[in-house]
Amino acid sequence: MDLKLDGKVALVTGSSKGIGEGVARGLAREGAIVIVHGRNKEKTEEVAHDIVSEGGRAYPVVGDLTHEDAVQRLVDEAQAFVKPVDIVINNAGGSGETEDWVTTQSETWASGYDRNVLAAVRVITRLLPPMRDAKWGRVVNISSLAGMMPPAKRPDYAAAKAAMVAMTASLAKAVAMDGITANTVSPGTINSISLDEAFRKAATSLGLAADAPWTEIERKVLPMFAQVPMGRVGTLEEIADAIAFLVSPRAGYITGANLRLDGGLWSGL
Description:
about 270 residues, Rossmann fold
């Protein structure tokens, strides 16, 4: 299926590693011009260079999304490379400190909200006007299944990710007549470098070798982390493919949705 993304310009925040990197690479494979963003200049430039070396089109921008001036600067840089930005994927954020209801601090909540929710708001508000002028745009905010199935630990992270779902629904209504869609993607347990390291570390406690085949580690260790009905973790490619469809012209009637990519872990309707 041709997703008709050739030449569309996509800014993917937090795309120097992990899910964001996977999404950036996936969009580039579909023909989009990708703006790779990160806080580490070397890593960000490396991802952009890799995309170009594989035949894609990509440009790096660097900046801390918790600072207004840094966000304005990176948006200006992105638009200097190529404009207008048609697609925004707000992936930057993260879980921060591992706290529970005994150790949690209000400062952690404020920092997590700023890093996840307000960072996305800063980017969106700067790029909505040209999207409205063009009568076309796509916004995807990356939340987490933790926002819908909050664990006992990291309550600040779960609350911030739940807020992203709510704000996206509000945004979708606000821009529905402007040719812009806004959706949330909520990943469950997704394979990444950090997850691989955590699983291999846990594998040793079960008597497995840290360098055992991934399928064996996944089968033994996954139940310790989540009861996924599919019995496996998701891949970065699966996340990227789902987002590529959501931001394509073919998904023009999908807005205000929260797409769960969790292998059936969510128990609700």
